[in-house]
Design goal:
There is one protein chain. Helix content is about 60%, strand content about 10%. By secondary structure, the protein is of the alpha/beta class. It folds into four domains: about 1-130, Response regulator (Rossmann fold, 3-Layer(aba) Sandwich), CATH 3.40.50; about 165-310, Alpha-Beta Plaits (2-Layer Sandwich), CATH 3.30.70.270; about 320-430; about 450-535, Homeodomain-like (Arc Repressor Mutant, subunit A, Orthogonal Bundle). The relative contact order is 0.05.
């Protein structure tokens, strides 16, 4: 529906316009009327109409001033000017300001209808065009996103086109000769606080809004072509610039991350880092540049309070198999002995080995991730344990591990996660062990009034009667018959307190048909006869 406001200082004219039109039939809705320019502007601000019919001359400020101010609220708002003959020159000026149409007083129904019909037609055409433009923008954005996803995959696999022309054509860039460089921006969480993925995702949404403005202000003017895009809660930038701008661009990137950190200081438990790889002269070398940017970003685990990371470390050589075998052996022992606290010893040893071997930050992150995968795989050899969703647990660990702000926090997170997993799995095992016993208890509760046998109940639990009898006594402290008798006597006590049935009837109701045996058993368990028990509550 087209929302309409009518403004005229002549009350009768205003009412006439309102009454002349079948607004609903016209596909319009009258949302308000005003008697002066000030009221009209307030109504426009409040109701956000699509169309305003206004007199050219009104108290407060006239239709021309109203038009100018309303355009600042909604540039696409339609205006129809209502003018007397003596003010026709104002109407002509209004047309130059983009007024849709004008109507001369006295207002004629046919003229008004025809004018509104034209406005409606124009509005619908404009709306259709706007929807088509929006859909085209969405498609272009989706295409751009796919191209960036392809670019990222190609950088990972080293399948970048060999020449600049093919690169520009494939990814829709306008790169020229000069230097090319990739930078990364990543957030981490101090002291492992708020390792909450939703929280971090919300922070990254705020970051993207701030980053766009800073990027346009500090980076884009120094580049031939540049872009920033987002993947896996990390911002990635690709730059093409003249060699003489290299120094300025390096300083601009450092300024960008400092400014970004200052603007996002409200997130006090988070830090933001920017890393760069070495600039290259040819686009196929961007894959190496990206790998260098990743290595530089990994150093945030080792270098404190450094927002701008440009040092690209070497990968330390070490015997991975022996390191992993030691950790895996201890992990299996922890699982087998059900001692989650010993995982801290295993992780502490892994951390110490990483330091002695001189691993860089990226290698330490990969070491922690591989160690967690080995921990999960170790459970395969333990019958008592069951990690229901190893793939999901591993993926979640990876996502949260990259949020750790130091090597200490990283290995602490590894130890905590392994310990919690063992504790949860021990709980699962105990629950699984009790599940058939609980099923048997439930079956007894539902069928105690019947003639129950050990064979019948053990069959319901899925075990042989001999094994079930042993397991049942171990978990409940009673044999099957003792437990069944306790259930029956408890129900008999309830009936003795609340029902008027005879003691013999109550005995039969709980599955003990022999009156003398029922009375004897009741007294043996409670210390008094059924009759004495009833008298206590009568």
């Amino acid at each position: 529906m087209i929302r309409v406001v009518v403004a005229d200082d002549e009350y009768k004219v205003c009412q006439l316009i309102c009454q002349l039109i079948d607004w609903e039939g016209m596909g319009m809705r009258l949302v308000g009327t005003a008697s002066n320019g000030l009221e009209a502007l307030q109504m426009i601000e409040a109701e956000k109409p699509d169309l305003v019919l206004t007199d050219i001359r009104m108290p407060g400020f006239d239709g021309m001033e109203l038009l100018k101010r309303a355009r600042t609220i909604n540039p696409d708002m339609e205006f129809i000017i209502i003018s007397g003959y003596s003010h026709f020159e104002y109407a002509q000026t209004a047309i130059r300001y983009g007024v849709s149409d004008y109507i001369l007083k006295p207002v004629n129904k046919d003229t008004l209808n025809a004018t509104l019909h034209k406005v409606r037609q124009r509005y619908l055409e404009h709306k259709t065009q706007a929807e088509e433009d929006l859909e085209q923008q969405k498609q272009e954005a989706a295409t751009q996103a796919r191209l960036r996803e392809i670019l990222w995959q190609d950088l990972e696999t080293g399948q970048i086109p060999g020449n600049l022309e093919a690169f520009n054509e494939k990814y829709r860039y306008h790169f020229e000769g000069g230097l090319f460089q990739i930078f990364l921006i990543q957030a981490d969480v101090k002291e492992n606080r708020h390792l909450n993925e939703d929280y971090v995702s919300n922070v990254m949404e705020v970051l993207s809004g701030k980053l766009e403005g800073l990027f346009e202000r500090h980076i884009s003017p120094l580049c031939i072509d540049s872009e920033i895009f987002y993947k896996d809660r990390r911002a990635s930038g690709i730059l093409n610039y003249r060699e003489e701008n290299g120094g300025k661009l390096r300083d601009a990137l450092e300024t960008l991350i400092s400014s970004l950190s200052m603007e996002l200081h409200v997130f006090e438990h988070m830090r933001f880092h920017l890393s760069v790889g070495h600039a290259v002269h040819a686009v196929p070398e961007l894959a190496r540049c990206m790998e260098e940017a990743k290595l530089a970003m990994g150093q945030r685990l080792l270098i404190r309070n450094n927002l701008f990371l440009e040092e690209v470390p070497e990968n330390a050589g070490f015997e991975e198999d022996s390191l992993y075998q030691t950790f895996s052996k201890i992990a299996r022992q922890c699982l087998d002995l059900q001692k989650p606290e010993q995982m801290e010893e295993a992780v502490s040893g892994l951390h110490a080995s990483a330091l002695s071997l001189g691993l860089n930050g990226s290698q330490m992150l990969r070491l922690a991730q591989d160690a967690y995968r080995l921990f999960l795989l170790s459970s395969i050899f333990q019958e008592k344990f069951h990690f229901a969703d190893r793939d999901g647990m591993e993926a979640q660990f990876y996502r949260k591990a990259v949020l750790c702000s130091s090597r200490e926090n990283l290995f602490s997170y590894l130890a905590d996660t392994c310990r919690k997993n063992i504790e949860e799995t021990v709980g699962w095992y105990e629950a699984e062990k009790m599940r058939p016993i609980n099923q048997a208890k439930q079956y007894i509760q539902e069928h105690y009034a019947e003639s129950l046998s050990l064979e019948e109940v053990s069959s319901q639990a899925g075990f042989s009667s001999s094994y079930f009898s042993t397991l049942f006594r171990k978990e409940t402290g009673k044999n099957f018959l003792e437990y069944l008798t306790d259930v029956r006597i408890e129900e008999a006590k309830r009936l003795l307190r609340r029902s008027g049935d005879t003691i013999e009837q109550i005995g039969k109701a709980v599955g003990m048909n022999d009156y003398k045996r029922f009375s004897k058993t009741f007294k043996k368990i409670t210390g008094i006869s059924p009759k004495e028990y009833r008298n206590l509550y009568s």
